[in-house]
Amino acid sequence: MEFENAARQLCHGISFSQHEPDPILRLRRGETWINESLAANRHVQLRVGELKFCLGYVTMNDDGSRNMLPCPKNKAVRTGTQCEGCRRLDQTKFMHHFHKTGEAPAGLKKYLEQPHFLYIASFAHGVTKVGTTSTQSKWSRLAQQGAVIARYVAKAPDGAAIRVLEDLVTQHVGLSQQVRQKSKIKGLTSWELNYAGLDEINSGSARQTREFLAGQRGLDAYGIELLDEFWEQPRFAVPVVSAWDRHTLHPWGASIPDSTLNFRLRGVLGQSLLVDHGDESTLRLIDAAELKTRDVRISDDNSEFQEEQSALF
Length: 313
Prior knowledge:
This protein is of the alpha+beta class. It has eight helices and 17 strands. The strands form five sheets. It has a six-stranded mixed beta sheet with strand order 13-16-15-14-4-17. The longest helix has 20 residues.
């Protein structure tokens, strides 16, 4: 269904950069991008719309850079972040199959020419995945995914070679390539594991992956280098991981779509927000993926919070 764009301000999720002190909530109104800092201790009011809208599509420039274009028909969507028309126009869709087909626009081929890394990432509920990232996104990719612990296990000269390794690891080591956002949130608030236990899981999977790759003949001829490199968790994620490790993190209880949220921001892990309502109040986790594709208005909230008692168990 098509809608008038008017002054709709669509959320494109949380972005991360090593060159910025804090994560950014990315909003777009027409052709204008709005970057809202998610700094710790900011008192925030979020007004969230009910409907989900297509976020548009990506085209690639010859130098490998990207253009994010808005949906030409301003369509509402029920699931995902794109309407069918924008999925067809999106040039990044070739990325996941290029190592099998060799088919991709020139700009995407240029992007894939840079060195890429293979990583093993673990999330709070213990699920561990294998994934890939480019040199330019080496750190931010894992920050955006909300990994609790991760290690880089291999480096390849290009994106095609690294995706071949990724498929081999999935097939022979048994690590999946995707983890659902809802399960990441549930893991952080269900207290099934702690940091030490998760680190043991991650280090074991990383070791198993390196041992498997070391047993493959001829990798060095393709420029493959095995690594044992720990990914450094961003500073703003530490309060989230610490609250999970201490078993003091609780889910945000209310519905997010078509609502107004007031809170003090304490930390950010991937697409989730650690919030409270003042000192001695309960630490809660908001699934910020619920904001993506919706009309979101953010403002500073200087009113007094109604503090709540910490949950007792």
